[in-house]
Amino acid sequence: MSAASVVAPLLLGIDLGTSSVKVLCVTCAGEVVGSGSAEYPVRAPQPGFAEQEAGLWWAAVQRAVRAAGAGHADAIAAVGLSGQMHGAVVLDGTGALLGNAIIWPDQRSANQVRELTARVGAARLIETTGSPVATGFQAATLLWLRTQRPELFARIATVLAPKDWLRLHMTGALATDAGDGSGTLMLDVQARDWSPALLEAVGVARSQLPAVRPSTEIAGELLPAAAEALGLRAHTPVVVGSADTACGMLGAGTVESDTLLVNLSTGGQLVRPAAQPAVDTRGRLHTFCSALAPGSGGAGWYQMGATLNVGMALRWLRTQVLGWTGDDAYARMTARAAEVPPGAGGLLFLPYLVGERTPLLDPAARAAFLGLAAAHSQAHLVRAVLEGATFACYDAYRVLMEVGAGALPQQVLLAGGGARSLVWRQIVADVFGVEVRRLLVTEQSALGAALLAGHGAGLLDVAQAARTWARLDAPLPPDPVRQARYTELFALYTRAYPANREIMHALGALQNGI
Fold first, then answer.
1. Which of 201, 272, 319, 494 falls between 20 and 30 A from 30, CA-CA?
2. Is the pLDDT of residue 232 over 70?
């Protein structure tokens, strides 16, 4: 569509991800008229550290926004923001950065995770925040800074999530939302505001944190200098925005509990909206606030299960075992998998290459092929890996169904790189026993940010529009015969981990020099 044919108003959604920023310019009907993206690195100054330079975020945002908004600046009515969760950007009293942002993959705070859990109490922490604390979460990172960098910690005047720093840079407005706030592990997930008990345990004052405001509220307007750098009009409204998962749900049209969103990426995330903040007291799930306020026409919370070894397992097989290269390597692998029937000729794969989260909570779990025989081929190996990764997702799904309330999902929406494979989509349909549909717009979080912008500008209702904006391919139903076969295999899968756990742990202890 040409710039001349676009009818105002337009909306801009910015998603500040872990490896890149993605920007969409869309109409109020959700039609994409412009897009842009730009990458930036993750720094590892020491083993286990994960940091990013906020200045590189800003430079990337400028390039991506200029690409997405080219020729449309005068028509853009509002800007929405989405961003990676859990990270910490710390500023001094003048608003200057006190170093790089410490982001979610960071592992330095393992001791502080244990310390914070002991201070608050595991049960009370989960009940209050909806989740167990983990390394890379803002609460643990701040406690690490307090313990290990006391001089720097004493200079902190403001702590922000990544997208909230971006908005401050664009508008001068300090704010956050309940979605990003709950990802810090310092927010009371039911009250949707900062928890005094968690702030005290971390050693942070409420005055050092931004006010929690609705995701759809206009936080401020583009400052003239920022607008010029972005190629947009000065004083364009910018809404508060939300976390990338919360925005991704909106972009996928996942606003009620009858739909499950499954992201087949490096890891796997299973997300289900929740009308109430039901918490898994065993800590196998995360319960976070959504971008929607309770009573706004959609679920105000969501529950998320996370499995670590989905696309990672397939990449391991491609690189470390098969040695296949080329842009078509994954397509060739899944084509081979289609050559053999469900069950991979009696070969079962446990995908725990880097431990497992939902539902095992076992970082020492290890992967295994069970039933490997001389007759098995490359095709069997690939099929077993696809099936094992899908079983891991289904294992997490069972916890979602156990903890969550309401009817079973009527469909599964698939996102991520794995969703491009028809073979893998069919395996998911057959294992889960419901029809699956693939999202055709891959930048769901940027799309969700644009939805929030449209609501803030008074141009649409975010919950209603989310239901119509999502672009999906045709439904793929499960096959009853294959589904019955996978039910038998999944029963073996769930028996395999407890039967091999002690051996996994013993072998894992010997792996430090690989």
1. 272
2. yes
